[in-house]
Amino acid sequence: MAARWSKDATLLRELFNRPVGDSVDAALRMRAGGRATRMALTIALLLTLQSALAGAEDQPMPTGARRIRVFPRGELPVQAQWFPDPAGNQWIAAIDSGVNLIVDGLPQFGTIDVVADRLVIWTAGREEPDLTGQRTQDEQIPLEIYMEGNIVFRQGDRVIYADRMYYDVASEVGTVLKAELLTPVSSYEGLLKLKADVIRQVGRDRFFAHNAFITSSRMGRPGYRIQSGDISFEDIQFPAIDQFTGQQLFDPATGEPMVEHRRLATARNTLLFLGPVPVFYWPALATDATDPTFYIRHARFKNDRVFGKQILTTWNAYELFNIKQPLEGTDWDLSIDYLSYRGLGHGTTFIYDRDWFANVPGRNAGLTDFWGIKDHGTDNLGLGRRDIEPAKDYRFRLFWQHRHELPRDFRLSAEAGWISDGNFLEEYFEREWDELKDQTTGVELKHTRDNVSWSVTSYARINAFFTQTEWLPRGDHFWLGQSLLGDVFTWYEHSSAGYARQRQASTPADPGTIPWHLMPWERSAQGERLATRQEIDYPVQLGPVKIVPYALGELAHWGEDLNGEDLQRAYFQTGVRASVPMWRVNPMIENPLFNVHGLAHKIVFDADLAVTESNRQLQLLPLYDPLDDDSVEAFRHYLPFPPWQLDPRDYALRTGMAGWVAAQSTEIADDLLAMRMGMRHRWQTKRGMPGRRRIIDWITFDTNLTWFPKPIRDNFGKSIGLVDYDFRWHVGDRMTLVSDGLFDFFDEGQQVVNFGGFLSRPPRGSLYVGMRLLEGPVSSHVLSLSYSYWMSPKWVSSFGTSVDLGGEGNIGQRFTITRIGESLLISAGFNVDAARDNVGVNLAIEPRFLPKNRLGSVGGARIPVAGAYGLE
């Protein structure tokens, strides 16, 4: 038996030293029978594939010492037979039992870990190589391995599963049959898989696969994959470095060096499969494989009464345009949307987060987003505005934001917002219209160091349907909390100078059935504005009471007021602020029902008495610094009456904005006498396992009110106003009761009360039930309920409903149920919008591994990761 192994092993060695064609001929001439003969034929075929696919590149070989060790794979001991090559200092080892081979001391990541049923090892040396690890071997000495049967090959955190595999350790090249390469992806919780009939490693991190596919699925038949005849794949591993210390990172559990990856896959004539069905063909693919979605990000299908049948898709632009090396730290998507009632929508989104921008160093991040449509329908914006002709046929919005942290404590911020017409955002991007920042166009350069900052700002209005202020330009300087005379006084300063031009909103072409009107403070005005505001505080500690007498003043000039005349204003405020803390602790209180273990009650009482005098009324001034968003201003335009008592300037004045040195709105200042009083309660207890308990806020309750000694002048005839409260009771770790409110007591003053409860059971889901009571110019009593629930490892549902019990009736509902597949998230649901008289249904499909929208967390219930809860 040993003689046959020796002879066949010698023949195997000769195959590697011959040209590939000769190797195949020699192998075919070998005697049939025997495992070594089958190995010889296999390796000969592997070498033929190597030559056909590409020539291996020689790699420079650093000097060093490596160690070879073998261990049994199972219970049987390792049985290795060495056969010296009579032609020279060559050694061949054949291991015919399950074996675990470890080669360490290699450059960079240091270790190769192989498990296989059978091995053949080629190496060189005068003495028989040591497989116990007691002697080392120079890494320049050839070392080649052939593996067969249930192979698991690990290097760094890359894993290869294979049926048969050849690997040259010194040159770091090899060939794998029926291979599966797994490599982790940091941007999502899963692994990237490259599976192929043949994978050829042509360098340390370079692979070439034949008849292959790439997927993020671990299933044998993945539900989502990209398939091609030939795929070139780069998986470059490099040490993970701490960005703050610059030191190599190590796994705290194993002590092994941590690894990062950079991956690039290129292919020709690719097919995208969903399950067994090919759904998309593209002639070329170049992708950053750390993003395991291919071509299409997600697809949604909807149908409703406003937009009709909808097919909404988002695509990976880098892959579509075959861009092999996209800018690092960037993501580029394309949108193609079909809306049967409106037209064909199209757009693009470009996101970046980089360390350089236009050859200027410094961390920078930004977003560019465009979407447009040639609209052939009408807008439905709710009650009284359900059939409005668009102002333009081609409608769009272009949005850009950029922030750049520059050297020497500078920061550059820029943004642009261009919209085709005033109703576009409200119709197509309602959530963005209601919740996100206004789309403005401008640039700011700011320098901050310690408690001093200055900035230069310039803004332009390009959307004529909004009232906005242009600054051409504006400069601001802040010096906040500066100690004077050895901490006796504290000084605050804000000075600004600029040329402003307030441009009022244009009247819409079709205001609908509801009257449209501008507010008085929105009239056009322009001119220079110069202002400086200063404050001096004198903090005094009288026992437990902290008292801060203060004086604040401002001098300001406007080149043009609302009457078209220049205006100078002197404004002065003086007062005293005071606060006193109190507390009581009782560690003996125990209540297992409410999970209370000891109780501490902490209270802070505070008060602020302020007297304000101004030689000009704020109603004379344009509101250069807006207090409300464009969406709120637009809502006022369509109210059936002008809400003079809800003037945002009066509300800002009564809440004390005139006493803020750092307030952006210089126009907010007028005569006022007010005393603001408040108290903040915290009931704290301990929760957790005995010996590991933590302090938590069990109950919190904050409340404030303002007393106006001159109610007719300052508060519409009422002495008390601006009463508010905020209550939170964390009954348990999963249940919280909440309530808050705000009250003004003059006629048509706002009175708002919210109350409800949250029940949370992470990761299973959450439930909220609440009521909102609103009285004033607009009244409503809205009952809301919402839940999200992870029903099983494969299903998540969410539901929300709102009903106005005060007369308007139903407001709307939404329901979504999501099927969590191994490779895909499939979500279906419906929504009802009573204000728009709209009912719709939707279906969304997207890869599970890197969800781009809310499907990653459906209504608060987090999607479980692949491999968890028996999903593999």
What fraction of residues sit in β-strands?
Answer: over 45%
Rg is: 36 Å
Number of helices: 9
Q: Biggest β-sheet, characterized? A: 26 strands, antiparallel, barrel
Terminal-residue CA separation:
44 Å
Low-confidence stretches: 1-63, 849-872
The helix fraction, in percent, is under 10%
Shape: elongated
- Average predicted confidence as pLDDT: 82
Strands, total number: 44
Helix/strand/pairing class, anyone?
mainly beta
How would the blueprint of this fold be written?
Elements (H helix, E strand, L loop, with lengths): L1 H16 L2 H10 L5 H19 L11 E8 L7 E6 L4 E6 L3 E6 L6 E6 L1 E7 L12 E2 L4 E13 L2 E11 L4 E12 L6 E11 L4 E10 L8 E16 L19 E16 L2 E11 L8 E9 L3 E9 H4 L9 E10 L3 E15 L2 E15 L19 E13 L3 E10 L4 H5 L1 H6 L5 E9 L2 E9 L7 E17 L4 E15 L21 E13 L2 E3 L2 E14 L8 E25 L4 E19 L15 H8 L10 H7 L17 E16 L6 E14 L3 H4 L5 E10 L5 E9 L7 E11 L3 E11 L4 E13 L2 E10 L4 E12 L3 E10 L4 E10 L9 E2 L2 E2 L10
Antiparallel strand pairs: 1-4, 1-7, 2-3, 3-6, 4-5, 5-8, 6-8, 8-9, 9-10, 10-11, 11-12, 12-13, 13-14, 14-15, 16-17, 16-42, 17-18, 18-19, 19-20, 20-21, 21-22, 22-23, 23-24, 24-25, 25-26, 26-27, 27-29, 28-29, 29-30, 30-31, 31-32, 32-33, 33-34, 34-35, 35-36, 36-37, 37-38, 38-39, 39-40, 40-41, ...
Helix pairs in contact: 1-2, 1-3, 2-3
Features:
disordered N terminus; 9 helices; 26-stranded antiparallel β-barrel; disordered C terminus; 44 strands; 15-stranded antiparallel beta sheet; mainly beta; 9% helix; 872 residues; single chain
